[in-house]
From TrEMBL:
It is a multi-pass membrane protein. One of its GO terms (molecular function) is transferase activity, transferring alkyl or aryl (other than methyl) groups. It holds the Pfam family UbiA. CDD domains: PT_UbiA_1. One of its GO terms (cellular component) is membrane. This is Prenyltransferase. PANTHER family: CHLOROPHYLL SYNTHASE, CHLOROPHYLL SYNTHASE, CHLOROPLASTIC. Keywords: Cell membrane, Membrane, Transferase, Transmembrane, Transmembrane helix. It comes from Roseiconus nitratireducens.
Length: 322
């Protein structure tokens, strides 16, 4: 019988929040800020918005298992909540608490005094929208055909969240550059493809989902490769890397290994192969984000972001990422 007061171990909580994948959030939120600001300056806004992204992500992971408790008891009985190692009440308090914390941290990040960075409500607004979409996905949307779209929307908002503290307002209206919106949509479409590919993973997947997910992932990568080209001359004046064929090639080389895996899954839809492909696709978000960090902040900060691959891969060998 489940212990209603069980708080679980550190390992249980690491599994509950899918700890390896949080490094993809650190990467895309951090890279968005670095791209727009040219570095982690002002540091207070950078730290607050990264913590906000992590809080919202962990809230989504925890509430996912709270909403899915009965299904997990039947299909995934080893999960921390389903196995009774963490009580549903404890998990629910943590999930809702982190959701609120994420919105508060994001809102505060827009009002931390900083030279050259005006006060803005945009981070709080994006965080509130992201929190609402997280709850919608974890709750009513997950069983529906639009679930992958909702998940992609979460990743799109996550990237925009990272840039939000450094985006200006004109007459109270936020100004989001076209290239930045294009990159955010690219990440969203890429994750939408991963989510589609992952549907029915445990049973070998459905061929339509496998085909659709593969194509959508490709579209996402193409968007990521060409979105910086939507920038104006003034917007890319301080960038450390020239936008053009070299950047397109870089994104293509980063994405190629996971695309090869996804192609093989089309021919051999084995559950283990699908799971490994999903894991690789999620981890690829980190080097993709590093490429955009390099655009705005140069190779040093790109390597800092890329280094997140090390703990992500190390932990993913011990903890499930889906």
């Amino acid at each position: 019988m489940n212990d209603p007061g069980s708080h679980g171990t550190w390992t249980d909580w690491m599994q509950l929040v899918r700890l390896p994948t949080v490094f993809t959030v650190l990467a895309d939120v951090g890279a968005a800020f670095l791209l727009v600001a040219g570095g982690p300056v002002p540091p207070a806004r950078f730290v607050l918005i990264v913590l906000a992204g992590v809080s919202l992500y962990w809230a989504g992971m925890i509430l996912n298992d709270v909403f899915d408790l009965e299904q997990d008891k039947a299909e995934r009985s080893t999960r921390p909540l389903a196995a009774g190692r963490i009580s549903p009440a404890t998990a629910a308090r943590a999930g809702w608490g982190l959701l609120v914390l994420g919105v508060v941290l994001a809102a505060v990040s827009g009002y931390v005094p900083a030279v050259g960075a005006p006060s803005t409500w945009l981070p709080g607004g994006i965080a509130a929208s992201l929190a609402a979409l997280i709850v919608a996905y974890d709750g009513p949307l997950k069983p529906t055909p639009i679930a992958p779209l909702a998940m992609g929307g979460c990743r799109m908002l996550s990237f925009l969240l990272g840039a939000a503290p450094m985006l200006g307002l004109v007459d109270g209206v936020p100004v989001i550059p076209r290239y930045l919106l294009g990159i955010a949509i690219g990440f969203g479409v890429y994750v939408m493809g991963i989510t589609t590919l992952a549907r029915d993973e445990a049973t070998g997947g459905h061929l339509i989902n496998l085909r659709t997910g593969f194509v959508v992932m490709i579209i996402g990568v193409v968007l990521l490769a060409f979105a910086p080209g939507l920038s104006t001359f003034d917007e890319r004046a301080g960038w450390a890397f020239t936008v053009g064929e070299r950047f397109v090639l870089l994104i293509g080389l980063i994405a190629m290994p996971v695309m090869v895996r996804a192609l093989r899954v089309q021919l051999n839809p084995d559950p283990a192969a699908i799971g490994n492909t999903i894991r690789a696709a999620l981890m690829t978000i980190i080097p993709l984000a590093a490429a955009f960090a390099m655009l705005g902040a140069g190779p040093f900060w790109a390597m800092v972001v890329f280094a997140l691959v090390i703990p992500a891969l190390g932990l993913s060998a011990r903890l499930r990422v889906t």
